[in-house]
Design a protein that fits this description.
It contains 2 helices and 8 strands; from the N terminus they run E-E-E-H-E-E-E-E-H-E. The strands form 2 sheets. Strands 1, 2, 3, 6, 7 and 8 form a 6-stranded mixed β-sheet that branches. The longest helix has 18 residues, at 120-137. It is an alpha+beta fold and 148 residues long. Strand 4 and strand 5 form a beta hairpin.
Length: 148
């Protein structure tokens, strides 16, 4: 497949739900919380809650670079942003989790090249495959996941 390194991924330009700031008890480890999506919030993402988001991101990068995650590779946008691409031909560079480090979490927004927005099924498949990677290889690096 021809790679388009000079293209940049785009985000869905939709309103985002405000973060819930109400005090809550910390969920039990390895709990996957599914949230109901509103029609205006259609940007799929994974949120890994962790005290060490940079450590988690670096661990993922290392396993990909060391070829321990054989079906994933790191792509870079024209802005040098890291994107994780699932390498089987039918999925390669179609929908790519993009990590973003925050103080207490690591978010993975689903991105795609400029004019190549994948259908919802493809986005969902990639989201599910990446959740699998997190659960199998990095489950000790986060307290819980949230899927949007």
């Amino acid at each position: 497949m021809h790679k388009k390194k000079n293209q940049k991924p785009i985000a869905n330009l939709v309103a985002q739900r405000p973060a819930d700031t109400s005090p809550t008890k910390k969920p039990k480890p390895i709990h996957v919380q599914l949230t109901q999506l509103k029609e205006v919030d259609n940007n799929m993402k994974i949120i890994a809650y962790t005290d060490s988001p940079t450590v988690l991101k670096n661990a993922i990068d290392k396993k990909i670079n060391d070829n321990e995650l054989k079906t994933w590779q790191i792509e870079k946008s024209d802005k040098k942003e890291v994107l994780y691409s699932h390498t089987p031909e039918q999925w390669n560079e179609k929908a790519m989790p993009k990590p973003k480090v925050f103080t207490n979490k690591l978010e993975f927004d689903i991105k795609w090249w400029d004019d190549k927005e994948p259908d919802e099924a493809t986005k969902g498949y990639i989201l599910g495959r990446f959740v699998e990677v997190l659960m199998v290889h990095f489950r000790n690096e986060f307290s819980h996941l949230e899927i949007k």
